Amino acid sequence: MKRQEDVGARRQGDGPSSAEMAGVDAVGVEPEARGISSGTRLSVFARTLLVQASWNYRTMLGSGVAYALIPALRALTDDDDALDESINRHLEHFNAHPYLAGIAVGAVVRLEAEGADPTTVRKLKLALRGPLGSLGDALVWATVLPGTAMMALTAFWLGAPPLVAALLFLLAFNVVHLWLRAWGFRAGLTAGRDVGRALSKADLSGWTRRLEPVVVAVLGVLCGAVVGSDDGLFGVNPAWTVLAAGAFVVGLLGGHRTWRPAAALTVAAIGVAAIVGVAS
Amino acid sequence: MGIVLLRVDERLIHGQVVIGWGHELRPDRYVLVDDELAGSQWEQDLYRLAVVDTEVDFVDVESARQKLAEWREDHRRSIVLTRDVATMRRLGEGGLLSGEKVNLGGIHHGPGRAEVLRYLHLTQQDRADLMALAEEGAQVSARDLPDAPKVALATLLED
Known about the structure:
The complex is a heterodimer of chains A (280) and B (159).
Chain A: H1 2-12, H2 18-22, H3 38-48, H4 62-76, H5 80-90, H6 101-113, H7 118-157, H8 162-191, H9 195-202, H10 204-228, H11 239-253, H12 256-279
Helix pairs in contact in A: 3-4, 4-5, 4-6, 6-7, 6-8, 7-8, 7-10, 8-9, 10-11, 10-12, 11-12
Chain B: E1 2-8, H1 15-25, E2 29-33, H2 35-38, H3 41-48, E3 55-59, H4 61-73, E4 77-82, H5 85-92, E5 101-104, E6 114-117, E7 120-122, H6 124-135, E8 139-142, E9 151-152, H7 153-157
Parallel strand pairs in B: 1-4, 1-5, 2-3, 2-4, 5-8
Antiparallel strand pairs in B: 6-7, 8-9
């Protein structure tokens, strides 16, 4: 009981937020002090890997989130009825990008451990579902996934055996994927209800913006590789590879206005390469 | 210019608003009118996450009523959001929203709420509030996304 009072007092004061107090060391969540052992944390995290397993149109990730929370909720009460009640609360509709859902799960674990009232926990989840969806879609589905897939395809066109290319994709994608999940869960756990500030500091959309030129460059290299590799469509000089990549990056860095002309130039370059290749 | 959208949506800023309406209307800022949010920093931080490079302001109902005229004249384009019908009613009370279009977005199922449209569930009080807004000159209609059909209040309230 005393611990919860401490937490409450800290929350009301003007002092640094819990996220700031935890600082850079995201591991330092003082797990024992919160009644959530590291074993419990690990088990909740492992369950977040299955957050999509019971995906449905009605509650979307809701049941997956409730399932992930069970070990933590169980650690926080000895009363079966209270446990049922808290699991039921978390079964309601929730949606987010699956890899970022752990941020919400982590923050909820923290809030529940602090003894936050259900309304606060609910508000946090309601406010998180939109941003966690759009941040994740932009970062993972629109950037990391196509980037790593095209990287592997490029390796294939440049001569890597199919199996190696496939493994390269699985490895590259899942390193980012699993890191993102682990980072997110820890960030949520550390920040609790200050997760909004922690997330804007982490600047996921900034990372998306920074990765975009890389992905587009990979696309350029891929186009070039398809056209220019030994086994490529037209067997032309691999220098086109560099040209194609360059045009894409210039277009992207130049912003919205130059993107289309640059893409058109790239296609034109590939077209010329094709004609030269066929003619020679 | 001014207020480009005045909307009731329980999720406030989220994908449908940012992508659907935001891309169509190109707002310079979102104004979230809500007494509770106006005083809750951590919740504000969360809602700010939903948009990139667009200002988000949080205003309580009383201040919003005073600023409505100013927002209409402002060169910035504002999307004004409330999370429920009651807040929109309070914002408009006394004819402040006369001549404005009031858009009803998502209000999902809950206790005492009956389905009016797939995305719109209203209580009896909501219905009364909407009629009051309309009587004071607001043009109330429902539309979840810019390219979805617009449903007029009269159609919404007929049983």
